[in-house]
Design goal:
Layout lengths: L2 E4 L6 H9 L3 E3 L13 E5 L13 H7 L2 H4 L2 E8 L9 H10 L3 E6 L4 H16 L10
Parallel strand pairs: 1-2, 1-3, 3-4, 4-5
GO molecular function: FMN binding
Protein name: Protein NrdI
Family: Belongs to the NrdI family.
Length: 139
């Protein structure tokens, strides 16, 4: 089964989202050497950005994605954020998608709503049923 890779800060919002998805998941450490994956995965990340959008992707996520063989297995990204930050909401997903050539599968506020969880679960089931299929989360 394809796995999830995620980074969660002290707030724990991303970790709570991942826990509710009921999928195998690998948590990226805040410090040290990032783990390597040898299977297709979806990345889930919070967004950290200043008012100009700088620094949107957390450093542990950057370290993880700097390993080309791991990065090549990424099938998509789910970005978390806070709508209070306006245009930078879930910006990390857009940055990663653009740089890595994968789709943004979902944008979620904080730890997500029950509707978000159902929608993401359905999309992941579809995606993981055939890893060659286009990546999309049903609306």
């Amino acid at each position: 089964m394809t796995t999830l890779a995620f980074y969660s800060s002290r707030s724990g919002n991303t970790a709570r989202l991942v826990e509710r998805l009921d999928r195998p998941a690998l948590r990226l450490p805040a410090h040290g050497e990032p783990p390597r994956l040898g299977v297709p995965f979806v990345l889930i990340t919070p967004t950290y950005a200043d008012g100009e959008g700088r620094g949107a992707v957390p450093k542990p996520v950057i370290r993880f994605l700097n390993h080309a063989p791991t990065r090549a297995l990424m099938r998509g990204v789910i970005a978390c954020g806070n709508r209070n930050f306006g245009e930078t909401f879930a910006l990390a997903g857009d940055v990663i998608a653009r740089k890595c050539g994968v789709p943004v599968l979902a944008r979620v506020e904080l730890a997500g709503t029950d509707t978000d969880i159902l929608r993401i679960r359905a999309g992941l089931s579809h995606l993981f049923a055939d890893t060659e299929a286009p990546c999309s989360i049903p609306a």
